[in-house]
């Protein structure tokens, strides 16, 4: 394949990017998106604050713009995200208890229903585990509604859009560590009890290197009977960047249930990681060495 998604497709995978609705009129940007990527994630436009700015009042303009543009061009969409401790609308931030639980499940139901049939996979729940080295749940207003809030969200999402794959998505779970093991235990428990979960997303926001047990970690999750996906990849620029991108592709291709890779932005100047130049295209939209190594790794073997 001569583009990222074409090469990935030949390996039975997708290659995607996050995009921002506010950049869709930038011809250089959209030219790269249209040419290189087959899976689209809205960087912010489908989050809770964007889709339900006032309680019970839903706003889909920017999310629809991204989703309909992608589908119209034959691309697929990862939905991001139905439930998260961050980027909650103000009205939700101040809620708690059963009222919050009800508001959360209504949000999941409404948004998943609006996009029913259009989403390849939803990040149903994002970043629900803590970074305390003990594998604890992250404290949040959602967690304080009861430990079962995650499975309640997954059940509501399945009921609303039975055709979408339902994922749990997190960062810092890319290697084998207490946090990823806590997620692993949750997924194993969900599978054992019939809680609907189809995939786990590994955000993969990396420094200059990738964990040595990255592939092994993806494989242990796949062995639970879920797909695994690399959902928000970016790698800090340094002398190792091209090599690190190659290693990420090789890890995914080595795990048969690793269904695809999404990078978290197009050009370095589009990245949330200011000054780190962590993406595949430079600020002018030119292909970087990391692009070439990624494409070559997808085409190898
Ligand atoms: O849209 C407003 C704009 O109206 C305002 O003028 C401007 C001034 O601050 O802010 C704009 O909103 C910003 C938004 O990005 C759009 O640019 C928010 O302040 C800013 O907080 C927001 O950052 C996003 C961040 O999630 C928020 O948590 C990043 O773009 C986005 O890349 C990042 O993505 C997350 C994933 O969802 C989950 N995993 C981690 C990843 C990186 O943090």
From TrEMBL:
Catalytic class of the enzyme: hydrolase
Catalytic activity: Endohydrolysis of (1->4)-beta-D-xylosidic linkages in xylans
EC id: 3.2.1.8
Keywords from the named record: Carbohydrate metabolism, Glycosidase, Hydrolase, Polysaccharide degradation, Signal, Xylan degradation
Keyword Phosphoprotein set for record: no
The UniProt record lists the keyword Signal: yes
Domain GH10: 1-297
Active site (record annotation): 232
Protein name as it appears in the record: Beta-xylanase
Parent sequence residues shown: 37 to 337 of 493
């Amino acid at each position: 394949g001569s583009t990222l998604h074409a090469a990935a497709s030949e390996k039975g995978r997708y290659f995607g990017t996050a995009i921002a609705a506010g950049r869709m009129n930038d011809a250089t940007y959209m030219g790269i998106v249209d040419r290189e990527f087959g899976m689209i994630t809205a960087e912010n436009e489908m989050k809770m604050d964007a889709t339900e700015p006032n309680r019970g009042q839903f706003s889909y303009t920017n999310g629809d713009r991204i989703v309909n543009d992608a589908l119209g061009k034959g691309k697929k969409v990862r939905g991001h995200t139905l439930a998260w401790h961050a980027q909650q609308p103000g009205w939700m931030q101040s809620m708690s208890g059963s009222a919050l639980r009800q508001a959360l499940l209504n949000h999941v139901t409404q948004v998943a229903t609006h996009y029913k049939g259009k989403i390849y996979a939803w990040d149903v729940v994002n970043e629900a585990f803590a970074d305390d080295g003990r594998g604890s749940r992250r404290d949040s207003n959602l967690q304080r509604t009861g430990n079962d809030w995650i499975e309640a969200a997954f059940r509501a999402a399945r009921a609303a859009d039975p055709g979408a794959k339902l994922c749990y998505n997190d960062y810092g779970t890319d290697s084998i560590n207490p946090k990823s093991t806590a997620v692993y235990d949750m997924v194993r428990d969900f599978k054992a009890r019939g809680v609907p979960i189809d995939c786990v997303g590994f955000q993969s926001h990396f420094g200059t290197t990738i964990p040595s047990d990255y592939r092994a970690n993806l494989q242990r999750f796949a062995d639970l009977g879920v797909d695994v996906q690399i959902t928000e990849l970016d790698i800090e620029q340094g002398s190792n960047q091209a090599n690190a991108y190659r290693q990420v592709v090789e890890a995914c291709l080595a795990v048969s249930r690793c269904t695809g890779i999404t990078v978290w932005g197009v050009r370095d100047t589009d990245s949330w990681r200011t000054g780190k130049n962590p993406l595949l295209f430079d600020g002018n939209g030119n292909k970087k060495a990391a692009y070439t190594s990624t494409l070559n790794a997808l085409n190898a073997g």
